[in-house]
């Protein structure tokens, strides 16, 4: 069969897909901006000045980084806001949601990835995901667009996507031992070795943010420290319309310790949940659910080891249930349930750790090369494992104070061209309309080689129906099979 015939067949496939497709459900993206470098606006007088999750001890860019300049117009709690991109290029972002009282330093943010945009459970076992991420203002990267963006004075508010897929985290839920701390690489290696990345969202063109002033001059640039593909506020009330999850900064945690006499569980590795239509956060998981009961607890402000600081986060909360019975703690309106809401072994998460996290020091001292560019997995049984090395993302890894640092994290199903949370006929239509040509992820190039071809069709086919975990619908499976069969005949 000739290439022209294959192309015509793909166009026909696009037409068939467009008739069967429903309206696109993409909502977002949204993000937060970092405001905790050299002079955090909410630090109490007398605290050691924090350098934020980017450079906790001021080693690399002393005397420290400036706050994201875009936050200047949003007041002292700008770091707690989740923003939507501005309505046009070079227009300031707008406030989407507030992450939940009383926080003012946000470090990580996630929706509930266990549910799709229609409220269906979507664990997607057996599927593959690509990782979307941002890096901090010190990171340079080892390949792909991260290095190129740094050389052009941009990157810290750019969003990148990996060129390789990873096994679904759902495949590992319930598999980790109880209370074992770090248990090594997650099962079989999740990828084949060092990988790369491609630029997906550009900070100024897509988000209206401020890039760096020049090559490798990041101090005055905006920095995205949390990222989510879904718009969490769909009714315009600046509160999430579905459950949201976040962690806080070490300075914020220490402030709460001072305010409460260290009687409440404020740590930078605890995870908090904000219920839908609520401005108040509740405790979701404690640090021992991730790192085990034998891990030293968070005890101090920056200037010494900061304990464990969860820096990027994607949450899967199996039952999505936050009870109405809560207990007020009397500090800034914060409220907590009697017990954390997490269900160990059922709920699970991907996360990264900030530079300076004590467990990174401990593991590297044992000869285990992990760092703040790595992505870890936990099912909250007191154990965690390496899910993807920074090398797999085109970043350097190893060392508790490594220059490369992952700052925000999101997952997208391989084949989800329109980022609506599912791989379906809409994505097939997009790929078909670009088949045989050049393109990026939005045109159906899922492996990052710049071409839309049978490799991408195969990736989409293997993940079709990924939002619900179902197998491909018979008619669609037949169409995909015919497309691959035609290529087999050509060969």
What does this structure look like?
This is Dockerin domain-containing protein. InterPro entries: Dockerin_dom, Dockerin_dom_sf, EF_Hand_1_Ca_BS. One of its GO terms (biological process) is polysaccharide catabolic process. Residues 1-20 form the signal peptide. This protein is of the alpha+beta class. The protein has helices spanning 3-20, 145-151, 203-207, 250-260, 287-291, 358-365, 425-434, 454-463, 474-490; strands at residues 30-33, 81-84, 94-98, 106-110, 128-135, 159-162, 166-167, 181-185, 197-201, 224-228, 244-248, 271-274, 282-285, 310-316, 327-328, 335-336, 348-353, 375-378, 383-388, 406-413. Strands 5, 6, 7, 9 and 20 form a five-stranded antiparallel beta sheet that branches. A five-stranded mixed beta sheet has the order 8-19-18-17-14. Strands 4-11-12-13 form a four-stranded antiparallel beta sheet. Helix 1 (3-20) packs antiparallel against helix 7, helix 1 (3-20) runs antiparallel to helix 9 (474-490) and helix 8 (454-463) runs antiparallel to helix 9. The longest helix has 18 residues, at 3-20. The protein is globular and about 60 Å long.
């Amino acid at each position: 069969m000739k290439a022209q015939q294959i192309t015509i067949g793909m166009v026909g496939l696009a037409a068939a897909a467009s008739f069967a497709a429903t309206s696109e459900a993409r909502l977002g993206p949204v993000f937060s901006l970092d405001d905790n470098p050299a002079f955090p606006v909410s630090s109490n007088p007398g605290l050691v000045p924090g350098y934020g999750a980017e450079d906790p001890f001021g080693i690399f860019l002393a005397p420290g980084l400036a706050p994201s300049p875009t936050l200047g117009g949003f007041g002292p709690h700008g770091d707690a806001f989740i923003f939507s991109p501005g309505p046009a290029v070079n227009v300031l972002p707008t406030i989407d949601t507030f992450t939940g009282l009383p926080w003012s330093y946000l470090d990580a943010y996630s929706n509930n990835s266990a549910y799709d945009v229609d409220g269906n459970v979507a664990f997607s076992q057996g599927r593959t995901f690509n990782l979307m991420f941002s890096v901090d203002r010190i990171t340079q990267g080892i390949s792909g667009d991260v290095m190129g963006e740094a050389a052009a004075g941009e990157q810290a508010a750019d969003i990148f996507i990996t060129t390789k897929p990873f096994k679904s985290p759902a495949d590992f839920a319930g598999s980790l031992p109880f209370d074992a701390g770090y248990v090594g690489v997650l099962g079989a290696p999740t990828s084949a070795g060092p990988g790369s990345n491609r630029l997906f969202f550009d900070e100024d063109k897509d988000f209206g943010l401020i890039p760096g002033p020049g090559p490798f001059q990041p101090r005055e640039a905006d920095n995205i420290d949390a990222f989510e593909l879904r718009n969490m506020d769909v009714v315009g009330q600046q509160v999430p319309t579905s459950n949201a999850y976040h962690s806080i900064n070490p300075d914020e945690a220490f402030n709460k310790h001072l305010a409460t006499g260290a009687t409440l569980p404020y740590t930078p590795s605890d995870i908090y949940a904000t219920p839908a239509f609520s401005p108040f956060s509740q405790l979701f998981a404690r640090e021992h659910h991730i790192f085990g009961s034998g891990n030293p607890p968070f005890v101090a402000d920056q200037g010494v080891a900061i304990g464990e600081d969860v820096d990027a986060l994607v949450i899967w909360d199996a039952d999505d249930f936050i009870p109405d019975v809560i207990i007020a703690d009397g500090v800034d309106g914060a409220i907590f349930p009697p017990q954390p809401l997490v269900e160990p072994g059922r709920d699970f998460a991907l996360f990264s750790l900030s530079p300076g996290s004590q467990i990174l020091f401990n593991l590297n001292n044992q000869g285990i090369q992990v760092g703040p560019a790595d992505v870890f997995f936990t099912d909250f049984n007191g154990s965690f494992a390496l899910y993807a090395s920074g090398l797999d993302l085109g970043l350097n890894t190893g060392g508790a104070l490594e220059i490369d640092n992952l700052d925000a994290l999101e997952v997208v199903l391989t084949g989800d061209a329109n980022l609506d949370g599912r791989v379906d006929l809409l994505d097939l239509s997009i790929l078909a309309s670009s088949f045989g040509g050049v393109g990026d992820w939005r045109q159906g190039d899922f492996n990052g080689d710049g071409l839309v071809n049978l490799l991408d069709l195969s990736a989409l086919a293997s993940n079709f129906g990924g939002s619900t975990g179902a197998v491909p619908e018979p008619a669609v499976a037949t169409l995909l099979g015919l497309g691959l069969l035609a290529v087999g005949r050509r060969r």
